[in-house]
Amino acid sequence: SGPRAAMYAGLQELGVANGEDLKETLTNCTEPLKAIEQFQTENGVLLPSLQSALPFLDLHGTPRLEFHQSVFDELREKLLERVSAIALEGKVEERYKKLEDLLEKSFSLVKMPSIQPVVMCVMKHLPKVPEKKLKLVMADKDLYKACAVEVKRQIWQDNQALFGDEVSPLLKQYILEKENILFSNDVSVLHNFFTPSPKTRRQGEVVQKLTQMIGKNVKLYDMVLQFLRTLFLRTRNVHYCTLRAELLMSLHDLDISEICTVDPCHKFTWCLDACIREKFVDNKRARELQGFLDGVKKGQEQVLGDLSMILCDPFAINTLALSTIRHLQDLVGQDTLPRESPDLLLLLRMLSLGQGAWDMIDSQVFKEPKMEAELITKFLPMVMSFVVDDHMFTVDQKLPSEEKGPIPYPSAIPEAYTKFLQENRIACEIGLYYFLHITKLRNKNAFLRLLPALAETFSDLAFSDIFLHLLTGNLTLLGDEFALEEFCTSLFDGFFLTVCSRKENVHRHVLRLLLHLHHKVAPTKLESLQKALEPTKQSGEAVKELYNQLTEKLELRKPSPAEVTETPPMELPLPAVPTPTSR
């Protein structure tokens, strides 16, 4: 009687006869046929004109059930249309009063599959479903699942735990998607983690689903932000910062002013979003961003926590760092020192705020981090001196060589530079981006000169996934250098292999790189690398899988033993006559 009972759920309360009543009538009567006829008359469609038409349908062999079902479906469609119309017509109070009355009458049938869509439709159009009804829906798993997101929002806003259960799998999926991109087998300088535009990223499934779940509900938006802050604190995973910005901009795309106007970061994020799209902070936008930072009033410092999270988004850091490198090169051409460039100082200020996000949210001390003077007076001029060294070397190469021979490329790096990369987070970030920059320019000399400084960096930033993802992509441009012993020894033995055994992510990135470039590597070096990179018992599945792929590729490249040892048998010792094709 389970599914049967569900079919008639709630009819009795409305005084409508159901299957059980018919069963009872038939059990207790003497003339079943008469009883059935009476039941049909009492519960059929009460239209006088129908009485003569029904026997006509009987003649055509159309079962009454089919007829009643089609009438029912037709009426239900009309009712659904009417409910949607009521929700839009007349005065606000009146229309909602009508819908509330309708809900009161129909709610007892909510478990009846054929009527359920109507009840759900009424609830969907009510901005405030009565608390009692929401509780009943929440208590029943099937009803909760069947109700529209508009109704769920009303349930969620007072049930943070339930909302958390709905959001949590989406956040997990989001982080997984980001990691899959960073570790993808596609190693390329043209398509990397930062290639998709902000607008494209916001079309992603998770952002779209969260946007839909939040609707215009500020309370739910705040809850999601709270989840993101908590997870960022718990894991230090910067992808949560990306999602924070993407979600706000997704609501901005839909013109949801109810939320955008109350998020104090909205205009700042909107302006920064435009910079990220261009991968550069131009002067006009720099002024705008500075205006927002300078405009943080006393008593509202807490907004800095949110702004720092927006600036901690890797896409923001990437844009700020690329802009910084570009500024430093321009300053070399203008004979200007870093401290004399307000634009550069603003970029550093924002980098500093972004890099300090975790500490600020953790300590709840909302003030901008102090910038070390030496970063500006010592470190950045050092980076500029590297740019100058490259210019000088290029010019030297073009000059007619005197007796003293060509001037060698400077190989030493100032000890202070290495120290900055180890001890100062912002210096380290800029140093890494400068290194990516010279790699992209295929500047092998600068690459080999600066690589040793990356062996030890601030909180191992040189071994972070985003940096290694970009570095492996840029290294494809230096493919031909992999045939050289000196280059491979510096890159693999001096850098990658120093941490492979204790950092699984580095192991993965090296294997990704070799899968892509193995055919460029000198055979003896490749052999020793294959041995060094063999997975251990502790290695994860991803490493083993990549290693197997690499081994398969290398097997395919090896000539088979037969080809190497046997010379084809010849009947007669023919003289070596050059054939026309080999000329």
UniProtKB/TrEMBL annotation:
It holds the Pfam family COBRA1. One of its GO terms (cellular component) is NELF complex. One of its GO terms (biological process) is negative regulation of transcription elongation by RNA polymerase II. Residues 557-583 are annotated as: Disordered. It comes from the Eukaryota. Residues 570-583 have a biased composition (Pro residues). InterPro entries: COBRA1 (IPR010405). Coiled coil: none annotated. This is NELFB factor. It comes from Nothoprocta pentlandii. The gene is Nelfb.
